[in-house]
Specification:
This protein has helices at residues 2-7, 76-86, 120-126, 142-151; strands at residues 10-11, 14-15, 30-39, 42-47, 50-56, 59-60, 91-95, 109-115, 118-119, 131-132. With 159 residues, the protein is α+β, with helices and mostly antiparallel strands. β8 (109-115) and β9 form a beta hairpin. α3 (120-126) packs parallel to α4. It is globular.
């Protein structure tokens, strides 16, 4: 037993100091009503009468134009449209990840968003319409998301 304890956290090169601990706890789904899609990685939901903005965990999609003089980024509209298309009906399921706070600095709820059994972040990554959010390498789905993004094609809108 002592040799097992002595080797824990070590590799041939020494202790593993830089590898983040990966979350293993993703909450049970919370079913909420979709109010609207803001952009590729942000939606508004109604959770039993409480309207909330929800930011998809683990990804970042291009920004869209919100009017005024700012132009949207390439593929921003395509990411928003794909998110709209992926949401089957008026409900989505949200799952929290214990590695992340409940909200981001803007007050948006952080969650994996699923619809009709599909992880919307994974779908956007696989289509090449999202990037990995590297500030959250400890989330449970980070490895899966990295794999999907590395195999994704370059979408037409990015060329």
């Amino acid at each position: 037993m002592a040799s097992v304890v002595a080797l824990a956290g070590c590799t041939a090169g020494g202790p593993v100091a830089d590898a983040p601990a990966v979350s293993e706890t993703v909450s049970d789904p919370s079913r909420v009503e979709l109010v609207r899609v803001i952009d590729g990685d942000t939606i508004v939901v109604d959770d039993r009468g409480d309207e909330q903005k929800v930011r998809f965990l683990g990804i970042d999609t291009p920004e869209i134009s919100h009017g005024g003089d700012e132009a949207g980024e390439p593929c921003g509209e395509e990411a928003r449209e794909m998110t709209e298309d992926l949401i089957a009906g008026d409900e989505v399921e949200l799952r929290a990840d214990d590695a992340q706070p409940a909200q981001d600095r803007y007050g948006r709820r952080l969650a994996y968003v699923e619809s009709d059994g599909k992880d919307l972040s994974a779908e956007l990554l696989a289509a090449g319409l999202a990037e990995i959010y590297h500030s959250a390498p400890d989330i449970a789905r980070f490895g899966e998301y990295e794999s999907l993004r590395s195999q994704a094609p370059q979408p037409e809108c990015a060329r």
